[in-house]
Amino acid sequence: MLGAPQQRGDDTLNFSRIDSSKNVKMADVETAMANLLSQNDCVMSAAALYHLRSGGGRVRAGLALKSARALRLPRQTTIAISAACELLHNASLVHDDLQDGDASRRGKIAVWKRFGPNTAICLGDLMVSAAYSAIANASTHHLPVMIAHMHRRVSDVISGQHADLESDCVSIDQYNDVARMKSGPLLGLPVELSLIAAGLSEHVSIAVAASDAIAIAYQ
User: Fold this and answer.
1) 180, 160 Cβ separation under 8 angstroms
2) How far apart are CA 87 and CA 92, in angstroms?
3) What is the pTM of this model?
4) 210: burial class by Cβ within 10 Å (0-12, 13-18, 19+)?
5) Per-residue pLDDT tens for 113-125?
6) Which of 15, 76, 107, 180 to pair with 163, CA 20 to 30 A apart?
7) Is there a contact between 76 and 139 (Cβ–Cβ < 8 Å)?
8) What is d(CA 185, CA 196) in angstroms, rounded to the nearest whole number?
9) DSSP for 16-41, written as a single string
10) Does 17 score more than 60 pLDDT?
């Protein structure tokens, strides 16, 4: 159990302040993502909305909302972390479907199949860029650390995806490494970013270990 930490800055965890994160709904996150993906290019906008409206459990955004509420983060930071994590996840799905040649996603035609491979590549890139724009809205002086950590975890996902596509796993250890890198980072990121925003970076390694174990079990 974590003890109640001492305040270490304006935005560091402080149980006496107003908990504005509890008023954040998933609809707020959906609106933030849609706004960030809005483009002058009508095809890109259509592809973005098509993918977002295709469903999905919003597991990563949900983890971010629950973590932010538990840590009593400000509303703006809560939405920023939730949208960033969900955008990164969906970017990976759009690119993954294209790379694997999967023609459907969530019971609907995959983005690359409906709008073309070029649009799918561009949409995935747009979602990654939008995720960094989202996290930039976090109202915390820990933002530089959050951005750097987000890049490290995205880099891990890319390494895992590349290994999955290019390597032949000949042992259970190799398979576990690929599963851990491919799925773990984006599962753990919502909790990890929330901890950093709350000034609790020393606990991030525990969240990383947990998400690695969950990713291996999931795969």
Assistant:
1) yes
2) 9
3) 0.87
4) middle
5) 999 999 999 999 9
6) 107
7) yes
8) 15
9) TS---GGG--HHHHHHHHHHHT--SS
10) no
